[in-house]
Amino acid sequence: MKEDQRKANIESGLANSSKVDLQWFVSQQTSAGSEWLKAIPKIPEYTMDDADFQVALQRRLHLPLSCIPPHTHCNCNRVLVDPYGHHFATGCRVGGYRTETHDCLKDKLARMFTIGEFRAVKEDKTIFAAALENDRHRPDIVIKNPEELRWKEKGREMLIDVSLTCPIEGSQSCNLVAPANLNIDVAREKKASAAKQRYREKKNKYQDLIRQYQEANNGANARTFSVVPFIFETSGLVHEEALDLLDRLADQCHELKKFHKDNMKIYFRRVLSVSLQTNIARSIRLRASTLAGSGDTRRQSLPAQTRSAINEGQDPLLVSAGPARP
Ligand SMILES: [Zn+2]
């Protein structure tokens, strides 16, 4: 099929979609968010098991998921679960799956920084506590030597906060809604709006915290911070600033170790994309299976290879030859 015809068919399909579908499909029209589809499973970090891959594909097409039986009600709020898994991906507080997805992305990202010889400290509880008594804020990752990233915002330490949000409103209540005036043009205009909103919230939170920290120190402290909210949408979309940071990290890996720059960029994006899709698919499958009465199959449902990819402590790729051959 000619490219023009293919594009025309896509446009026509989008125009005839429901507003919620349209918002979802447009959110997926990003290169970084589609990397998991291009990953050839030659290494654990590019590998998804069949059940996860099936869920991820159904999610991409916004089809009712075959792993969620009709009329499933969640035990967190007794609501009828949406058939696309949005509630289980980001709206459900039961089982700690949202946290697992977040932690897995955080761990992968922290390991990537170590390839570029950055000192990445996870969940440093002491970061503000020296000046703010009883403060328990802990950024997901603190980069202690960020100079070589040449980041636009200056600071002796870089605070990275990973977060995941749904591009469609209503994942908690399972009442999925799109803006009433949505059409293709508006959807494209509003693309990444959930990620941008979460980005602003995180920025404001840390600005406030840093201001309190500086005031408590009477402006005399030597510590300064840059803040990077690292935001994913559940569609796969990654906030542009997070992508900028990854690119700079790849540049540094190239400078230091002569890894191919573009391959490194693809490798970083792909690892995160596969991890995001795997973890969301797994959350959905396990929550659905638990509610269907077949118990929590969290551990036995995963093949050893996927478990090792998820469990950073056993990830063979980055420990051994991985970064040398992306
Ligand atoms: Zn729930």
Question: Can you characterise this structure?
Answer:
Helices cover 48% and strands 7% of the residues. The protein is built from twelve helices and four strands. It has helices at residues 3-15, 19-27, 35-38, 50-60, 86-91, 97-115, 184-189, 193-216, 240-257, 261-294, 304-310, 316-319, and strands at 120-122, 141-143, 157-165, 225-233. The chain has a four-stranded mixed beta sheet with strand order 1-2-3-4, with helices on both faces. α4 crosses α10, α6 (97-115) packs antiparallel against α10 and α9 (240-257) packs across α10. It is globular. The structure holds zinc ion. Zinc ion binds at residues 74, 76, 87, 92, 94.
Keywords:
disordered C terminus; single chain; alpha+beta; 48% helix; four-stranded mixed sheet
As for the number of domains, it is: 1
Mean pLDDT: 86
Strand content: 5-15%
Helical coverage, percent range: 40-55%
User: Biggest sheet, open or closed, and with what strands and sense?
Assistant: 4 strands, mixed
Gyration radius, to the nearest Å?
21 Å
State the end-to-end distance: 32 Å
The dominant shape is globular
Tell how many strands the DSSP assignment holds. Answer: 4
What compounds sit in this structure? zinc ion
Order of helices and strands: HHHHHHEEEHHEHHHH
The stretches of 5 or more residues where confidence is low (pLDDT under 50) are 296-303, 309-326
Content-based structural category: alpha+beta
- By DSSP (H or I, 4+ residues per run), the number of helices equals 12
Q: What strand line-up does the widest sheet have?
A: 1-2-3-4
